[in-house]
Design goal:
Blueprint lengths: L24 H10 L14 E2 L11 H8 L9 H14 L3 E5 L2 H12 L5 E4 L4 H9 L3 E4 L20 H11 L4 E7 L12 H14 L3 E4 L3 H11 L8 H9 L4 E5 L10 E5 L2 H14 L10 H13 L3 H21 L11 E5 H4 L9 H13 L1 E2 L1 E3 L1 H4 L1 E2 L5 E2 L5 E5 L7 H17 L6 E5 L10 E4 L1
Helix pairs in contact: 1-14, 2-11, 3-11, 4-5, 8-9, 8-12, 12-16, 14-16
This protein binds ligand F0G.
């Protein structure tokens, strides 16, 4: 049905609404100034379209809300846990399922056990919390995607793939006993939300078998990734996205999921493993820090909503709408002349601010300038993924820039309509008109780490 739909429409209707405040440009200028030109410090009630993240910001369905009323809040062996465990076992094919309060809790448990001094983790790209949890154990984290995938212009179907040749070299270089795990992140959030092919994961499985290294799938967007495989990889068009996700997850030794994404819930996480001895170690840590093994960090109603969300996310019409509506925004922006990371990924559109704001030097944060302009012009909240987020200083205090100066527009699931997206597109016409006049920013306060969350800036 969805292939025949000529106009992209939402395959759901609205039953509950949350009013949005319509503000003026003057109001937004004041609000942004008060927030130190950092959109993390804005009040969400002063934001019109919130593209800060797709994590935990989605809308639940009527079935999920109904399920919440059925949540079994028993401390141990709750019915809601049995429901969630059944769904996740079927999805992953793994026997040991641990619930956690969110993705990073699962990361802390698993990488706390596998990591340690002198250990190395290798991934297509580690997400920031993944890297932080690994480095916290004293281990190091190495990112390896193919060189051509780093070029924002090149049109390739699976730019999220891990570089298999480089992986072999690294394993030999570090010694297989020092490689704690290989982590494949699907889709690859930190490099444009780009998908990973099934062929790449199958090859990865073979390499992990050869060297006896565990393969972890960081699959918080595994359903979105499956849609790309179905439509881009030979041999998958007649399979359902659920079948594709199941096939991929069966290639892993462990699965980590921030359920706040494709779990379609506002809070939740999962850790699943194949190996019994490893599961015992994980469960012991889970009990110390998250909760008993049949609830982890979650209430019964959370588990009920997640069990239902993990089924709903594989609805083919939903996934078609989801991926196409992200692409709709990205493709229209590109047609207007906005430089975007290409092709468009699953959950977000990434804009190359260095290309767009050529007049703003890197040490004046062109990405943050675009983030500020989007808020002032349209009440749109985005996030800079560039030198404000990742920049460091040399001995002389000069900025060592990040690899790219990107701005991410992450789309919450089932929250905004096509007309909201069209509104965002209109605001970009104003951005294009202003692009040669806009100014850079300087940092006036920054904390010692993860500075982008709380830094304050001023206009130059
Ligand atoms: N792994 C990936 C690939 C992620 O994108 C995230 C979160 C996590 C792990 C951590 O999960 O937040 O539940 O603890 N990504 C969010 C984002 C925060 O905005 O991209 P968490």
């Amino acid at each position: 049905m969805s292939e025949k739909m000529r106009t992209l429409t939402e395959p759901f209707k609205i039953k509950m609404v949350e009013p949005l405040k319509v503000t003026t440009e003057d109001f937004r200028k004041e609000a942004l100034k008060a927030a130190g030109y950092n959109t993390f410090l804005l009040r969400s009630s002063d934001v019109f379209i919130d593209f800060l993240t797709d994590s935990g910001t989605g809308a639940m369905s009527d079935k999920q809300w109904a399920g919440m009323m059925m949540g079994d809040e028993s401390y141990a062996g709750a019915k809601s846990w049995e429901h969630l465990e059944r769904v996740v076992k079927e999805l992953t094919g793994m026997p040991y399922i641990l619930p956690t309060h969110q993705g990073r809790a699962a990361e802390r448990i698993l990488y706390g056990i596998l990591g340690g001094k002198n250990k190395v983790f290798i991934s297509n790209t580690h997400f920031d919390t993944t890297r932080a949890n690994i480095e916290f154990t004293g281990a190091s984290a190495i990112d390896i995607i193919y060189d051509e995938a780093k070029d924002p212009e090149i049109d390739l179907p699976f730019k999220g793939n891990i570089n298999l040749e480089k992986l072999n070299e690294l394993i030999i270089h570090h010694g297989k006993e020092n490689v704690a795990a290989v982590i494949i992140t699907v889709t690859n959030n930190s490099s444009g939300g780009q998908p990973v092919s099934m062929a790449n994961v199958k090859e990865l499985r073979k390499i992990c078998n050869t060297y006896n290294i565990p393969l972890v799938i960081d699959g918080c967007r595994v359903a979105e990734n499956a849609y790309f495989i179905k439509h881009r990889e030979e041999g998958y068009i007649n399979k359902s996205c659920e079948e594709i996700a199941k096939e991929m997850l069966r290639l892993g030794d462990a699965f980590i999921m921030s359920a706040k994404k494709d779990g379609m819930v506002n809070m939740g996480g999962l850790l699943t493993v194949k190996d019994e001895a490893l599961s015992v170690k994980c469960k012991n840590l889970l009990i110390i820090s998250e909760g008993f093994t049949t609830y982890g960090g979650l209430s019964g109603r959370d588990m009920e909503a997640l069990a239902i969300g993990l089924t709903e996310v594989f609805d083919e019409d939903y996934l078609h709408y989801r991926i196409r509506s992200t692409a709709y925004l990205g493709e229209k922006l590109r047609n207007k002349g906005i430089p975007v990371v290409w092709p468009i990924g699953g959950h977000a559109v990434y804009i190359d601010a260095k290309q767009l704001y050529k007049n703003i030097p890197i040490n004046q944060y062109p990405g943050q300038a675009l983030v500020c302009d989007l808020y002032i012009k349209g009440g749109i909240r985005a996030v800079e993924v560039g030198s404000l987020m990742f920049g460091k200083y040399d001995d002389k205090g000069e900025l060592i820039p990040a690899t790219n100066e990107l701005v991410r527009l992450a789309i919450p699931r089932r929250v905004y309509t096509q007309s909201h997206i069209d509104y965002v597109l209109d605001i970009f016409d104003d951005i294009l008109k202003l692009k040669n006049q806009t100014q850079g920013y300087k940092i006036t306060y920054e904390p010692p780490f993860l500075r982008h969350f709380t830094a304050r800036l001023d206009k130059l």
